[in-house]
Amino acid sequence: xxxxxxxxxxxxxxxxxxxxxxxxxxxxxxxxxxxxxxxxxxxxxxxxxxxxxxxxxxxxxxxxxxxxxxxxxxxxxxxxxxxxxxxxxxxxxxxxxxxxxxxxxxxxxxxxxxxxxxxxxxxxxxxxxxxxxxxxxxxxxxxxxxxxxxxxxxxxxxxxxxxxxxxxxxxxxxxxxxxxxxxxxxxxxxxxxxxxxxxxxxxxxxxxxxxxxxxxxxxxxx
Amino acid sequence: xxxxxxxxxxxxxxxxxxxxxxxxxxxxxxxxxxxxxxxxxxxxxxxxxxxxxxxxxxxxxxxxxxxxxxxxxxxxxxxxxxxxxxxxxxxxxxxxxxxxxxxxxxxxxxxxxxxxxxxxxxxxxxxxxxxxxxxxxxxxxxxxxxxxxxxxxxxxxxxxxxxxxxxxxxxxxxxxxxxxxxxxxxxxxxxxxxxxxxxxxxxxxxxxxxxxxxxxxxxxxx
DNA sequence: TAATTTGATATATCATACAAATATGTAGAT
DNA sequence: ATCTACATATTTGTATGATATATCAAATTA
Lengths: 222, 222
Description:
2 copies of one chain form a homodimer.
Chain A (H helix, E strand, L loop, with lengths): L5 H15 L7 E2 L2 H8 L3 H13 L3 E4 L3 E4 L4 H8 L7 H17 L1 H7 L2 H17 L6 H14 L3 H19 L14 H10 L2 H11 L1 H9 L1
Antiparallel strand pairs in A: 1-3, 2-3
Chain A binds a DNA duplex (30 and 30 nucleotides) through helix 3.
């Protein structure tokens, strides 16, 4: 009784075809007419199915040139699909956890790849931070500092993943879904930089974990 | 020269509308006819644009009920799209790094959420591991053990991200892009479980980092 | 009141037509 | 024989109308 729509079925068949066939980027695709006859559906349905693949960046099409297999950029896909406002609470929470996981986990990459020049920039960010409002929690500064850290990993996939998830964090903060307790940020940004300069990979990693302690404790409290 | 197709333009407008409007899951969407009149395009174009949103899981539609905003699954897209993808070396490397980042970073989640029952299962996995081939590196065991850890985070987004990236790891292993040095995996799976049972969150985290030392050192060597 | 029928409405699919872009074939000039 | 200009065919892009199907809501009936 599982009667998915024709379009969905067709889309599935097309994806299956892509998997079976020895396709690589640039491989040609049958014409809409052929596909329609082959699969026994109208051209409309074929078109809609193809459209979905196009939306996902799996194929490209141009007038009269037919469709060809493309090499999709997965992260770009996610960028389009993420509309923070319509993500449910549970997903937002998981994304927030993912952020914590990423930041603690990337410590080693940051530690190994940070150069002297990078340290200067980090210091600058922290100073601007303390100039303005010393105690009040500011999302922009938070983003500036941590965003820089992502950048320092030298891993563009990781970095893009962060900017991808950023709107969700923003949303979480804006709606006070996660409140920042300002009492004792035992490990400040300044302290973190200090570890980065004088500590070890391990001490920096554990320092990062401490820096995020507020978030973690709230996570495990609920 | 913004000569994108009408469908793409329309899709963009619809997404913009979603971002502007105060939409949440379940919010109704104008009918195809209305949208067509509003945007000055035919119903065909509207349908194809809506179809794309449907493919991305951003909206749901059922006959006569119109379309409603859905709570999209951010990974769903990637899961569908990653199949035929041909990743270049650089991206593969970055994905591998991402794995390391995730596994070290998720240590705290694992540590806090692992139950006694989970420990039993982990022990079982490790024993099956040592029964077969004690010294030879086996991808399946690796996946079984680490996959279990992801599961223990209780974060389904994280867990799915792993299974999503898995094919890439497999590829990396298969092509010996990253060779596993079998000499002294100082921190074995068994040792890790021991930390999980008797250690602290920090010791487990650092143990996980040690366990992945081989990969890390190879990473930083090149 | 509860169940059923009916009607209105919106999406799902089909069929067709034409427009626009591109590839291909053809004729003529050189 | 080769090149160019033009005509033709092919394929996707867009538009329109028609029919099928599912759903809700109102009307009807028991």
